[in-house]
Design brief:
4-stranded antiparallel beta sheet; Chitinase A, domain 3; extended; alpha+beta
């Protein structure tokens, strides 16, 4: 069985199947359940005549339908996965749950199609490449395994595309319902939890030279001499782990003194004080506690460095293909705009007149200074490849065809901004699952659904 690498919410029983290809059918053409071949005279058909099962509608969902064949296919996939995980519910219950899942999926896909969302071929190909790598299969082996699972490459691509569309609809619709205030961010960052979340992490090695007696007088002096000798060896390049195994009296001595990754706030205050000025690769001078003399080594450190980000100030013109504007026409129109600007035309005026990005068109297409993750991958990649004062060639994203111009670049210390953005994302993610359930219930209750089973 091919392992899926991306997940879409399957709320009823926590299964994560790929989605089957979306099929539109004429209701009149699929209303019959079976077709019996009879002679013109209405006589009993000959013995070799067979009843031929036709596909049928199992649910009408607004202007769309769910077909029996799709329900059966989804049932097979779910059963194949649930058999490996838990006892199965009664088949009729499972059938109702799978159908409900397909209905809600239909509603979400319809939203994506209405606003022109799209998944590029490159995104789908990258997903398939990751699946091949995850499963350790060559392209030919992957295709063979798909065939054994009853799938084709074409069918898999459509399933991936629909799964990604559903995820993007959920992200767009649900995140817009979750508002995180500046005060909430401030409260979180000043809380004990926030301080823990913000504190750096250290990958540590530890050597403890324990006192043999009360840690006073000669006992203290002897222990200090031994610890200083080990420290001198470390400064000359000897291996920390080997010295820990040979000399440390700590609990992790036989593991080379490795403490793994530890948050600064999780460590004894005495350790934290030593670590504040240490960077990756540093070894502390010997320091005393009630148990003995300690030496720390920082193998690595994360979560505390300044964040300097290369930002681009960018403008763009967006054209959305439609029934009256084909893909080729949209691309050609942007090529014409590009030539006009090269001939002395004003990019901003063209954006005001022609761009379909309502958020930036009135400002001449100005998107301000970029932040990591602010734009979709295709946009970010093109932006980074375009020099200051230059225009890109027209390019496609899930939103349509773009032409962008880079006006300026700068390196900005974004440490505070990044921290606050991360806090916003954390607080938003905590609410996402609950808000997603509420939203799904809302769109289900507002839809016209007629179940034919």
């Amino acid at each position: 069985m091919i392992k899926a690498i991306s997940k879409t919410c399957f709320h009823t029983f926590n299964a994560v199947p790929f989605f089957k290809k979306r099929v539109s059918h004429s209701l009149a053409a699929v209303s019959a359940i079976t077709l019996i071949t009879l002679s013109p005279l209405g006589l009993t058909p000959p013995a070799h005549s067979k009843t031929v099962d036709l596909d049928k509608v199992v649910a009408i969902v607004d202007d769309d339908v769910v077909m029996e064949s799709e329900l059966k296919s989804q049932m097979r996939q779910v059963l194949g996965q649930l058999k490996q995980r838990a006892s199965l519910p009664p088949e009729e219950v499972l059938r109702e749950q799978v159908l409900e899942h397909l209905i809600v999926k239909r509603l979400q896909l319809a939203m994506a199609y209405r606003v022109g969302m799209d998944i590029s071929s490159s995104e789908v190909e990258q997903t398939i490449a990751r699946m091949q790598q995850t499963n350790g299969l060559s392209a030919d082996q992957f295709t063979q395994q798909l065939s054994q699972d009853g799938l084709t490459i074409g069918g898999l691509k459509q399933q991936i595309r629909e799964e990604m569309l559903v995820q993007r609809v959920q992200q767009a619709r649900v995140n817009s319902r979750i508002q995180v205030s500046e005060q909430e961010v401030d409260n979180f960052l000043s809380s004990e939890e926030g301080k823990f979340w913000l504190s750096p992490q250290y990958q540590l090695g530890h050597i403890l030279i324990p006192f043999s007696g009360n840690g006073l007088g000669q006992d203290l002096a002897n222990t200090q001499v031994q610890a200083q000798s080990i420290y001198n060896s470390l400064t000359k390049g000897e291996n920390f782990r080997e010295l820990a195994v040979a000399h440390s009296g700590g609990q992790n001595a036989l593991q080379g003194g490795d403490l793994g990754w530890r948050k600064g706030v999780e460590l004894p205050e005495l350790f934290s004080e030593q670590l504040t000025s240490m960077e990756a690769g540093d070894v502390s001078k010997p320091f005393k506690s009630g148990a003995g003399i300690h030496i720390l080594k920082v193998y690595d450190k994360r979560g505390s460095s300044e964040t300097v980000i290369r930002q681009s100030k960018v403008r763009h013109i967006l054209l959305k293909p439609s029934e009256i504007l084909s893909e080729a026409q949209a691309k050609q129109q942007l090529m014409d705009f590009r030539q006009q600007v090269l001939n002395g035309g004003d990019f901003g005026e063209l954006a005001k007149e022609h761009s379909e990005d309502i958020g930036s068109m009135l400002g001449g297409g100005d998107l301000g200074w970029s932040l990591p993750g602010k734009f979709v991958p295709e946009f970010e990649q093109t932006m980074e490849a375009t020099a200051i004062g230059e225009m890109s060639e027209p390019f496609r994203s899930q939103f349509g065809w773009h032409l962008l111009m880079v006006d300026d670049r700068r390196d900005e210390n974004m440490t505070e901004t990044v921290i606050r953005n991360q806090a916003v994302n954390l607080l938003r993610n905590r609410r996402f699952s609950e808000e997603l359930e509420i939203w799904l219930q809302e769109i289900r209750s507002q839809a016209y659904v007629d179940i034919k089973m």
